Amino acid sequence: MSVEGAHTDAWAAAAHARAAGLDTAALQEWLSGRLGPGAIREERFLTGGTQNVLLGFTWEPASGESARRLIYRGPPVNKRKNSDAVMLREARVLAALTGSGVPHPGFVAACEDLDVLGNAFFVMEAVDGFNGVSEVPEAVAADEAWQHAMGLSHARAVARLGDVDPFAVGLEGFGKPEGWLARQPGRWTGQLESYRSFETWPGLDHPGVEEIPRWLAERLPSAERAGIVHGDCHAGNVLFSHEVPEVAALVDWELSTLGDPLLDLGHLLASRDGLTPSGAPTNAEMVEAYAEVSRHDVEAVDYFHVLACFRFGAILEGSQARASAGLVPESVGERLHARTVSLFDQALRVMDGEGVGS
User: Fold this and answer.
1) Three-class SS of residue 167?
2) How far apart are alpha carbons 26 and 67 in whole angstroms?
3) Cα atoms found within 13 Å of the Cα of residue 154, Cβ hemisphere only
């Protein structure tokens, strides 16, 4: 997706959320019960995502303590069947990462009581940083050395996440890592098939729909690893520091699970195709930076690159299906469908020998 496209989609999503409304008085009462009496000030919907509702606000404690900048994160305006569960899973992984070396927003509190706002949600600390796609400062956009260092920092942050022992931080039952990799080709083929429940969805006419999962099933790596998978770690889901060319936080954890953490390396590569600034590291440099930090072998990087393309494309096509039914803005569906096609094209190129590990 282009920077212009990211701006357009983010604006549309924020406008959609704003029109639906959010009961800030109820949110304030709920927060007061957890943080002590206080008030919500300076609230505004954020234009950082196309799927979930984000509201940034200042929390002013009645006690006179220093105000805090916080963010409410809730499901899409038109909730899916599992939206509430997804919110609570995302909150759980953020809480588990507290004190780790993984840059992430600080967890504040989560709400599973649907009587409060009509949906599950959580509140997290705001992070002082800029979005790696839609908010890049002019000075950074003109500094290739800064861009290069940012890219390497991104790879290292993803590697640090992959090194966290999920069971040591209380994430038992968060996913099913045993046999996880073998299940992936069928899992995402099934995801695509599920969109046929939208009678208005035209389907996905691409050779990769059949060729990619067959290639993956035939080349399944023998090694099985268990770690935390972010699942959506592209640059648009990263906040970078204003002060130094480093990651301030990985954000948008709604797709996180337990599985093979090398999927995030594959996703990092898949998400860069045609979308990197002029000073960005090469894919080979990104893999090298990841390997310098990670305890995992990266020999099968091409496999995870292809898997990430297939998985990511299958997920994004859901926006096209929902857009065809009028459940998300049409512009979002069109742009993400084009991205799905691009990802499947990319997977076929890697399968043909154009990957880093080839």
Assistant:
1) coil
2) 19
3) 34
Q: Distance between alpha carbon 140 and the CA centroid of its chain, in Å? A: 23
pTM of the entire predicted model: 0.89
Size of the chain in residues: 358
Angstrom distance (rounded) from CA 230 to CA 90: 10
> Are 35 and 124 a contacting pair, CB within 8 Å?
no
The two tokens of residue 43 are: 């609230």
Structure letter (DSSP) for residue 286: H
Q: Find the helix or strand (DSSP H, E) in which 39 lies.
A: strand 38-45
- Please tell me what DSSP assigns to residue 256: -
Q: Looking at the DSSP assignment, which residues form a beta bridge with residue 44? A: 56
Tens digit of each residue's pLDDT (9 = 90 or more) over 187-217:
999 999 999 999 999 999 999 999 999 999 9
Q: Looking at 133-137, 173-177, 217-221, 299-303, which range is the least confident one? A: 133-137
Q: Is 332 in contact with 12 (CB distance < 8 Å)? A: yes
